Every structure is written in structure tokens, then in C-alpha cells.
Amino acid sequence: MTEHDRVTRLLGTEGEDAGCEGTLALLAEYVEGLLRGRPVDQLFPAVATHLRNCPACAEDCEGLLALVRGERAG
Questions:
Q1: Does the pLDDT at position 7 exceed 70?
Q2: What gap in Å lies between CA 74 and CA 63, rounded to an integer?
Q3: Which pLDDT tens digit goes with each residue over 15-64?
Q4: Fewer CB within 10 Å, N or C, the chain?
Q5: What does the pLDDT average to over 8-21?
Q6: 59-68 in b/e burial notation, b at 16+ Cβ within 10 A?
Q7: What residues contact residue 11 under an 8 Å CB cut-off, 6+ apart?
Q8: How far apart are the C-alpha atoms of 29 and 10, rounded to whole Å?
Q9: Quick one: DSSP state of residue 55?
């Protein structure tokens, strides 16, 4: 992590941030896009920014990814 990244994390996010509520509202679409190989950072930039800066929402995203992958595999 660069010094700029550390400062951004401490002081807030760079660019638009969807916030927890906005991110969770779009998380299913974001995960579906990830699994289909779509450019989710471009399609959902505010969600991507939030996930980089919010460990709780990033954990929710990883959990949803694991759940969907498991359902598709089984």
C-alpha cells in the first residue's frame, strides 16, 4: 500500500463512494458481474471504491462470492 493509499484510507475515499447501504443494495449485481468477468470497477465504481475501503462490506462481498460459487459448483 502506498503512502497515498494510507492517507486516503485515513481521511476518506477517493472518488465517489456508495457507502455501506448503497453497496449492499448493489452487491448481488456486483458479484454477478465479477463472476461473469465483467469490468465491475467501471460498471460500479462507487461500489468498488467502497469495497476497497470498508472491511465489513468487503467481507460481505467475499461471503456472497463464496456462496454463489458453491451453489454453482454443487
A1: no
A2: 16
A3: 688 999 999 999 999 999 999 999 999 999 999 999 999 999 999 999 99
A4: C
A5: 73
A6: ebbeebeeee
A7: none
A8: 28
A9: H
